[in-house]
TrEMBL record:
Organism in which the protein naturally occurs: Saimiri boliviensis boliviensis
GO CC, any one term: membrane
The protein's name: protein-serine/threonine phosphatase
Chain ranges of the PPM-type phosphatase domain: 1-202
Family: Belongs to the PP2C family.
Length: 299
């Protein structure tokens, strides 16, 4: 699973594109892990007569990045040349994890789960054959698809993330920015894993709403004022950012983004705090979000 760094690597890799009636954006961040083990693929318009098809994938590496990178380079070609993939699983799971550890029942690699003598590759605890679902599209109902790794899903549920993304699409049409907000929010919610997310928007995706943009600006202004008030109330010296965040977390703040809540506004709060704090240091993120402190309530 990998060890932790002293402070998270928050630099992001971004990309976006459009075609075939789709728009997509993606963001990936190493976070607390000592290595970036995730990889991804985003291709609009496939070769060999499949120009109207698109392919998106997030590969969540385990115990290294080699398999994820290999899949990124070769899986699409393998699929287009062999289109009869089928899979079934008899794998036991404990709290949605195989043997209480691995979060997936399909994987390339993870040979510790494939060492039962006398059983074939697809009969092991973890199978290399994919589970394939063919879902009919609904132009009226479908808005977007989110592909993400464990670093996202460990701290946000399906509905939470959909609600958050929907709220972000109402304030910006920049899909890279939306994806960046997702990974930042998951980091601030306590994710200790690599984080990768691809957002694919259909024509019926939410559009920017002037009313939502106005409410977002009002929320940011409110948070700025509250941070200033909390710092001034301290009197001498400046309270640390942990105190500021915990104070805000104890309040009933209106109009916070659904799913993201206060964590999704951490960058706004920190920017104001740093502007008003002459004693700031570069280890603020590290001291607040260190893995050893993850048992505390999320900030």
């Amino acid at each position: 699973m990998g060890a932790f760094l002293d402070k998270p690597k928050m630099e992001k890799h971004n990309a976006q594109g459009q075609g075939n009636g789709l728009r997509y954006g993606l963001s990936s961040m190493q976070g607390w892990r000592v290595e970036m083990e995730d990889a991804h693929t985003a291709v609009i318009g496939l070769p060999s007569g499949l120009e109207s098809w698109s392919f998106f994938a997030v590969y969540d590496g385990h115990a290294g990045s080699q398999v994820a990178k290999y899949c990124c380079e070769h899986l699409l070609d393998h699929i287009t040349n062999n289109q009869d993939f089928k899979g079934s699983s008899g794998a036991p799971s404990v709290e949605n994890r195989v043997n209480g550890s691995l979060a997936v029942s399909r994987a390339l690699g993870d040979f510790d789960y494939k060492c039962v003598h006398g059983k074939g590759p697809t009969e092991q605890l973890v199978s290399p054959e994919p589970e394939v679902h063919d879902i009919e599209r609904s132009e009226e109902d479908d808005q977007f698809i989110i592909l993400a790794c464990d670093g996202i899903w460990d701290v946000m549920g399906n509905e939470e993330l959909c609600d958050f993304v929907r709220s972000r699409l109402e304030v910006t049409d920049d899909l890279e920015k939306v994806c960046n907000e997702v990974v930042d929010t998951c980091l601030y919610k306590g994710s200790r894993d690599n984080m990768s997310v691809i957002l694919i928007c259909f024509p019926n995706a939410p559009k920017v709403s002037p009313e939502a943009v106005k409410k977002e600006a009002e929320l940011d202004k409110y948070l700025e004022c509250r941070v200033e008030e909390i710092i001034k109330k301290q009197g001498e010296g400046v309270p640390d950012l942990v105190h500021v965040m915990r104070t805000l977390a104890s309040e009933n703040i209106p109009s916070l983004p659904p799913g993201g809540e206060l964590a999704s506004k951490r960058n706004v709060i920190e920017a104001v705090y740093n502007r008003l704090n002459p004693y700031k240091n570069d280890d603020t993120v590290s001291s607040i979000l260190a893995p050893s402190a993850f048992s505390s309530p999320p900030l």
